[in-house]
Write a structure and sequence with these properties.
By secondary structure, this protein is an all-alpha fold. The protein has one domain. The chain is built from six helices and no strands. The longest helix has about 30 residues. The N and C termini lie far apart (about 40 Å).
């Protein structure tokens, strides 16, 4: 029962932390890279209309947000989970990948971004988050 509770907290916390990191980077990106002139980003419909005005620089922070949100969420999950750490980290990656796929269908963005985002920002980052925690948690080899 104790491992179930820790694993549940790992998944829930990983999703929350990943979402916070994601939204923080999206917000920061909007401050550091202003939207194109004439773009109204006040609603999803206006954002859809403005997408053709976006250049590559406008996709930098969305990619970073997706990648770092997944990485942080998966790393948290791997740290907190008591069993099945890799699977739980990958669950975080799959959850964020599902969100990314939904965005591809809801928000028209360039194909290069969709391919890069869906292939590199979610499952690979979940695995890297897991590996970072596992490497850190392993006891260091003692020198003789």
């Amino acid at each position: 029962m104790k491992s179930f509770i820790f694993n549940f907290i790992a998944v829930l916390g990983g999703l929350v932390i990943g979402s916070i990191v994601n939204m923080g980077l999206i917000s920061l990106g909007g401050e550091l890279i202003p939207p194109p002139i004439g773009a109204d980003l006040s609603s999803m419909e206006e954002l859809k209309k403005a997408m053709p005005l976006f250049t590559a620089q406008h996709f930098l922070f969305p990619f970073l947000a997706h990648a770092m949100g997944t990485l942080c969420g998966a790393a948290f999950a791997a740290k907190v989970a008591s069993t099945h750490k890799l699977i739980i980290s990958l669950v975080i990656g799959v959850a964020f990948l599902a969100g990314g796929i939904m965005m591809v269908f809801n928000l028209p963005s360039p194909m290069w971004f969709n391919v890069l985002d869906l292939s590199a920002a979610y499952l690979p980052m979940a695995y890297i988050g897991y590996k970072l925690i596992m490497k850190k948690d392993q006891p260091e080899a003692q020198s003789a």
